[in-house]
Amino acid sequence: MLDGRVLFDVRLDLPPGWTCLLGPSGAGKSTILRLLAGLPTGTRFDGRVTAPPRVAWMAQDDLLQPRLSVLGNVLLGQRLAGTAPDAPRARALLDTVGLDGMADRRPDSLSGGQRQRVALARALMEDAPLALLDEPFSALDAGTRRRMQDLARERLAGRAVLLVTHDPSEALRLGDHVHLLAEGRLEPMPLPPAAPPRALTSPGLAAAHEALMTRLAA
């Protein structure tokens, strides 16, 4: 509850694969992510959350530590967990997200899209069974966004992923399950038959997109 108002009354199960969550601003999408991550929400919660003790978390803001290098930020989760930092793996991941040669730079020298890719690399470094991604590709140009979507699908295969997005096309391309959160209710949306990541020409994608846009505009 927030200011005496019930934000949502939902049950959400997260099987292995990508569950994508869409809905209008203020519907409670990011609040659900924060509840699963065990973070403060600014609301009163009456219910039960069952989640693994460790999750991979990527917030809307990149939350990069300004005093750490790019490499230091990617390794931050391991350091906080008390595990030995795997610098070679982190450097290889930075190369994969297109940030080769930038490991020693500071966050304030990066563009918004570069910062978001550092945050994505940091999330992908985590070996947690649950990944919580809050608009992880929003600062990227179209070509880079597609490459990072495919990379995330590959690296997070076999895990449960909850992706919050405002982009219906992104949800339909990546999602094994797509839900619309609106007016405190969770509604599953129909998906094309092809397995994700789906091509824009996949049979049924245009119809699924139209159905989703119709619900979002209602």
UniProtKB/TrEMBL annotation:
PANTHER family: ALIPHATIC SULFONATES IMPORT ATP-BINDING PROTEIN SSUB 2, TAURINE IMPORT ATP-BINDING PROTEIN-RELATED. This is Putative hydroxymethylpyrimidine transport system ATP-binding protein. Belongs to the ABC transporter superfamily. InterPro entries: AAA+_ATPase (IPR003593), ABC_transporter-like_ATP-bd (IPR003439), ABC_transporter-like_CS (IPR017871), ABC_transporter_ATP-bind (IPR050166), P-loop_NTPase (IPR027417). Keywords: ATP-binding, Nucleotide-binding, Transport. Residues 1-208 form the ABC transporter domain. Gene3D superfamilies: P-loop containing nucleotide triphosphate hydrolases. It comes from Cereibacter ovatus. The keyword Transmembrane does not apply. It comes from the Bacteria. One of its GO terms (molecular function) is ATP binding. SMART domains: AAA (SM00382).
